[in-house]
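Q: Sequence in, structure out?
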Amino acid sequence: MGTGDLGLDTRTGSSVITARAAATFEPVGRSVATARSFVRDTLQGWGHSDVIDDAVVLTSELVTNAVVHAGTAAEVLCLRGDGHVRIEVSDRYPEREIPLQASAVQMSSPDREGGRGLQLCAALASRWGVDYSATHKQVWFQLDLPERSVGTRSAGPALPADLLPMADGRVRVAVVQIDRNGAITSWNEDAEHVFGYPAEQITGKPLTDLAAWPHTPGTSTGIADALRLSRWEGSYGIRGADGRVIPVYASHLRVRDTDGDPSTVCLLVRDHERAVLQTPLRGPAPDSTAQSDGQGADPFEVFIGAPAPDDLDGLLQRTVERARDMLDGDSAFLLLATDDETELEVRASTGLPSARQRFARVPVEVGPGRYGSARMPAVHEDLTQVPGAVPLLNGTGMRSVVTVPLKVEGRLTGSLGVAAEAPERYSNEEALRLQFAADRIALAVESARLGELEKLRRGSLSFLVEASDLLAGTLDRDQTLALMAQMTVPTLATWCAVYTIADQASEPYLSYVLHEDEERIDGLKALLSRIAPPDPVPTPGARVWPAPAEAAHQAALRTSMRSLGLGEPASVSSGIGTTLATASAVGGETVVLPLVARNRVIGMLTLGKPTDEHFRQEILELAEDLSRRAALALDNARLYSERMAISQSLQRSLLPPELPDVPGVEVEVIYRAAGEGNEVGGDFYDLFPIRDGAYGFAIGDVCGTGPEAAAVTGLARHALRLLAREGFGGPSVLERLNAAILDEGARSRFLTLLYGELWPQEDGSAVLKMVCAGHPLPLRLSQDGTVVPYAEPQPLLGVMDDLELYEQTMTLDPGDVLLCVTDGITERREGSRMLGDDGLAEVLATCTGLTAGAVAARIMRAVERFAADAPSDDMAILAMRVPGLHHD
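A: Exactly. Output:
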């Protein structure tokens, strides 16, 4: 059932809805102001500033009825149709008295509490109505839009000359056009002058890439969202070509280009010239003595509104902008107190240099007396008379300032200030007005701050868990260094450098550098290599390291002088862009965290910000937690690398040196040790000269794999060489080796061994004397393709004390191949199948006419292809071939 203009279709009217926005507000007093700001920002974003005042007044009354009088949550829905906007306010109190006629509403007494909102609807709205259901009541109103072109703004009132904004010389208005994807398509001369980028360099890049402030101050949307609105204006920061953040005030208008595609035209001016573009404020300045009763317009509702409750950055930036406008100041700032209430951290400012923008810190107590503490309101008529009274304003040109504390339940939570360039601008009256505003915003700011901290802590825990998993997943030193840097950039810092210390007597060494812009890594590395590394102080926590910023600024100054012809010739100016870019990338705050593991400083983790940016305390605490984990991971990687190097060095000592050239005989060896990181296992081989014209060769297999088997390998290989060169024959050599193995006691292991002596002959053949002690028999490949075993099996070594071994003498004719392998070759398995002696013989039979190297390679390929799994046993191949008479 509806009341009001009965000709309206109460569903949404007959027109098509082109945009909608909705929000729900809890039944508390501050929801009225939040609802007003929601409607104001929605209509401002749609470009309908003409009807904002009426819509806000009506919304305020209807939401007040719901959340204050009815005590229920209120749902506000904004709809835009053809030529009108419609706003619906719903609550859950349907049993209230139903006004049956519009006239009944119009004739109600103005003093009557109920129905006043409906009276306003009747007076201000072009159409309105009330709809009821079993559980809801909805009051709606419609405001017709004036006939005008889309996006045009109504003109402001005529102002006296003394109230017009002051311009410093020519006002530069940057005109930037952005396509539907957010990429810049047009960049005028003023934009190039303000930001320093030539049009050809910036065209095609997203505007959001230049944005230094991630959220659009004054709204809950980011810049990317604002570009999609039909009309928007507000402040944000653009990073110039020199890396410095330039505060700008922007007006965005959504249009269609010549092809009919949506695009956005942006007008941007420096923030202190914002009056050139800013929509004139409506209505008189708020009265400092006014008190809000929850009805109608609240003069300080501008401080409680638009951002979502958890959008702290937007809330703070909106607050400082409205505070500046309220007191007609040149700048404003808002600082939040640390947990111990000893320092204040800059969280939002407007009209101040970018160095004062974010996370800079000032003490709460800066001097004696009440005006030296941020805990009390203070008015300074002329800062030149009390230098240092407000550290944040040092060197800014501000002369007069009023600051007030933000307190919640008697606890200092922050400070709000407004400053002007002229002296004696503020008095106690302005301090009272600003304090009243601060009292209204303090609780909302603290709630949003606690919500941000909780969200940050949850994100920090997740970050540290993931970082620990990644660091625990590798023992490679270089990979650990890369992971450390990649986890900090860009999550915690813009750039990162890791210094390592080999031992207490060594200087820190620059081991790894990373920047979020890969093109700046080389310049950053060159800059850091020219300055002394930070001192390896073991004190926990982050400490500021000014050297990189100072070096970067000096390098930029020298480059600028050379480019102007004041120093070196301008021919070196090809590096100017890189140097300036590096200076802007490194010119901000730099902190150093020690990497301490096992009570020793093993390095430093250095984190940096671009020009004029600071680290927030929560980020530094998170970086400290990460540095502890990273230090232990880096030290573990160091220990693993050292032990692996020792192990590999010892293993390589067990392998024979380069094989000697045997006249008239081709020799090829292939060796594979089982197990990751092993170079030597239980299998071994050797080939060495015994005396003139005689060579010893051996291939063996110690029971087992790994270091224990490798120890017996070293014993066997060195004993064979020593005994053979002492003139002992094959059986005597193996019998003495058997005794040496048994002398090892519990460390002894079984050993299969093929040992032989080789004499190349003048007729092209070779005489062999061999002893095969428990080893797979060698195979002979004749020129006709015949493969036969070429020795007889005898007992293995390391089992019995008394061995009676004998040697066999054979001859290899020209073209013959002798193949010796370990059981890792013949016992290669795939399920229940095994390669075996017969399989090996079949592969060897296909090698007729091949060189020794080709034979060994073909055998290994066949073994690897026989099974898909990695080998579980050591493998060794020794192939010897006597070349044919008519080739080689």
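The first strand starts at residue 19 and ends at 25.
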